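Sequence, please.
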């Protein structure tokens, strides 16, 4: 009896993250894995070589990964250009193809052949060709005597020359990105494809199952994936959309593992994480925790309450505002978890302690002494401008009318008129003046209550009721008539006298003259101090601490293990969820929990086919991989580099990981690839897609 009890406790501890804690923190550059991380990865279970992860002269895993659009990751799962990413990454495209008559958001979409795949104008995917350290070339000619402006001018010129050389005589695109606050520079060369077509999307009751209630939470039961296909010209190179294009043949596509995982198994995430800020000064973190996040959460709460009421009352509005609602709510909930995580960890106090130690170490080093005090003083000066800037983004520019009318505030040319007509068509397709008017009133009330007078325009500009009542930009027919006019003088006169355009211009003028210049100037000084501070930190802790560069939307590897966790006392989260949990949440009266009839039928009959595992179907799992925004859609891979899942979220208790990673609760959430395949095959009826895929033996 005692032996059995001991086994149960040991098992429980392993599943809930109380085994020996391994710090799986870090987002590492693939090209440097061999130099700095491969030994640690192999010690933790990785079975491949560094060259299998990243190589230039032969195919490697990097060649199966894309930056999807501007803010997600995707991966190739066939040699015919088939790509998987998150449902929420493809949500905008799915929504654009949807209408009341063809509600792909609600019912899902499945192309039954190549001719039915849907093009997506403006959507691109980017493959990394190579990355290389160009620090010496970028800093060539930079001297300590230069002013910051002179230094930046030389760096910009060097960047331009490096990019020009990298793209000369080829079709590639390139950028040079700063790492470690400008102490290192890397060149990234990309091949960009413009013809990307929608192939499969599950119903939103699967792809967005749980909605905002479950967002950022564990346990999770969301089938967050969508399938696209990359097309190329006949030469297999990027080409603009054409019916004559053919599926792209990649250098590499992922082999899919159906073996599943166990607690403690090695995993890694390979993708394009957006932004992290691991080395921020304590005053910057304090501002985020105590002021910025709370105010932004409040403003978004107001917006969401208004949208939610309107969407619940009208199916058309529900579709129109689906993508907007998802976009607003995502950061809204993340910021709440971030605040709580920073408070729980005492991040501000930890950073203050480190800064004191740094200054003690730097006391006899003139290059570094006083850096943290100078940063504190600069942040004190920056805070009012940062606060006003937050409100400009989250209150002023959140008013759809002002943002749309602002497109007409610049000079008009035949080229811009054509673009504006397209913008108008897209705007009014998904616009409710009633929602926007109510939102504007609520946001402006908070704006006037919280933004200091010196950062605000005059009272007339903030009278949203009057602005909406008089502006023509709330009416699609009036906007179309304006754009159809051949009298440009009259057109300019109408635009210049419109209340919404006037308000946009006034807010913009205040922002450009009273907020942004001081904000930018102070940040230049802050960046200069960070360059010194970062260099000093690395020198101070040389040999005792591995420094990884903050994420900046460039390709990275994060690795860890499958593991549960304990969010609060007496609560144990296991690392796996199943279809049983989906059905436990099933509720036809709630849109986000209304399981599709086909899935309900399969569950009742236990008709899972080849996808059955222990009498159910795996849905999602969590691991200790360090991820952030941009990692959405990233491949989650096992020790052999085989695809086991698609990353789609983080656990709410660990959303402060952009600022401080905590191995106890920081978990990435991944869709089990077997659930995606089950849905494609048994629910969507598109099992033919599996014939393209390669499965591990």
């Amino acid at each position: 009896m005692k032996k059995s009890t001991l086994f149960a406790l040991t098992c429980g501890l392993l599943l809930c993250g109380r085994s020996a804690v391994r710090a799986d923190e870090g987002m590492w550059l693939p090209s440097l894995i061999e130099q700095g991380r491969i030994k640690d990865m192999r010690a933790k279970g990785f079975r491949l070589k560094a060259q299998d992860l990243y190589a230039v002269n032969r195919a490697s895993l990097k060649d199966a990964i894309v930056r999807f659009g501007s803010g997600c990751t995707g991966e190739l799962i066939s040699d015919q250009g088939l790509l998987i990413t998150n449902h929420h990454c493809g949500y905008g495209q799915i929504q654009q193809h949807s209408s009341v008559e063809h509600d792909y958001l609600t019912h899902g979409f499945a192309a039954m052949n190549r001719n039915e795949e849907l093009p997506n104008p403006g959507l691109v995917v980017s493959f990394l060709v190579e990355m290389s350290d160009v620090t010496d070339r970028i800093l060539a000619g930079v001297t300590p005597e230069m002013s910051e402006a002179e230094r930046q001018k030389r760096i910009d010129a060097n960047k331009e020359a490096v990019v020009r050389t990298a793209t000369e005589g080829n079709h590639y695109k390139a950028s040079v990105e700063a790492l470690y606050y400008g102490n290192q520079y890397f060149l990234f060369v990309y091949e960009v494809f413009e013809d990307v077509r929608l192939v499969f999307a599950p119903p939103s009751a699967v792809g967005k199952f749980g909605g905002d209630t479950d967002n950022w939470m564990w346990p999770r039961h969301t089938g967050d994936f969508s399938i696209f296909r990359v097309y190329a010209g006949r030469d297999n190179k990027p080409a603009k959309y054409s019916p004559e294009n053919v599926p792209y043949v990649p250098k590499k596509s992922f082999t899919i593992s159906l073996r599943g995982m166990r607690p403690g198994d090695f995993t890694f995430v390979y993708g394009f994480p957006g932004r992290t800020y691991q080395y921020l000064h304590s005053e910057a973190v304090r501002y985020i925790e105590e002021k910025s996040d709370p105010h932004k959460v409040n403003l978004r709460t107001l917006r969401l309450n208004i949208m939610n009421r309107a969407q619940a009352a009208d199916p058309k509005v529900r579709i129109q505002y689906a993508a907007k609602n998802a976009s607003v709510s995502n950061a809204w909930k993340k910021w709440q978890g971030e605040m709580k995580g920073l408070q729980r960890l005492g991040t501000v106090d930890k950073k203050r302690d480190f800064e004191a130690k740094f200054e003690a170490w730097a006391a006899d080093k003139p290059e570094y002494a006083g850096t943290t005090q100078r940063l504190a003083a600069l942040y004190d000066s920056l805070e009012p401008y940062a606060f006003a800037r937050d409100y400009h983004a989250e209150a002023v520019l959140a008013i759809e009318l002002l943002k749309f009318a602002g497109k007409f505030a610049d000079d008009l040319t035949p080229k811009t008129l054509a673009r504006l007509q397209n913008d108008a068509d897209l705007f009014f397709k998904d616009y409710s003046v009633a929602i926007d008017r109510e939102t504007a009133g609520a946001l402006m009330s908070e704006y006037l209550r919280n933004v200091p007078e010196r950062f605000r325009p005059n009272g007339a500009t903030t009278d949203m009721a009057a602005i909406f009542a008089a502006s023509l930009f709330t009416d699609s027919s009036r906007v179309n008539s304006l754009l159809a006019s051949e009298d440009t003088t009259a057109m300019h006169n109408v635009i210049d006298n419109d209340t919404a355009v006037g308000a946009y211009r006034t807010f913009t003028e205040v922002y450009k003259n009273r907020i942004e210049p001081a904000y930018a100037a102070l940040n230049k000084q802050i960046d200069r101090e960070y360059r010194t501070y970062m260099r000093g930190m690395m020198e101070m802790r040389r040999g005792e601490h591995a420094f990884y560069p903050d994420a900046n939307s460039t390709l990275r590897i994060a690795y860890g293990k499958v593991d549960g966790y304990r969010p609060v006392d007496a609560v144990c989260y296991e690392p796996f969820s199943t279809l049983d949990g989906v059905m436990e949440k099933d509720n036809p009266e709630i849109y986000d929990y209304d399981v599709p009839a086909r899935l309900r039928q399969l569950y009742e009959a236990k008709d899972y086919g080849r996808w059955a595992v222990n009498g159910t179907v795996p849905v999602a799992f969590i691991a200790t991989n360090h991820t952030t925004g941009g990692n959405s859609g990233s491949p989650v891979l096992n020790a052999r580099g085989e695809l086991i899942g698609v990353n789609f979220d983080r656990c709410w208790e660990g959303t402060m990981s952009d600022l401080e990673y905590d191995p106890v609760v920081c978990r990435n959430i991944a869709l089990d690839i077997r659930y995606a395949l089950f849905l494609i095959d048994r629910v969507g009826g598109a099992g033919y897609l599996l014939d393209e895929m390669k499965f591990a033996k």
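Residues 499-540 form the longest helix (42 residues).
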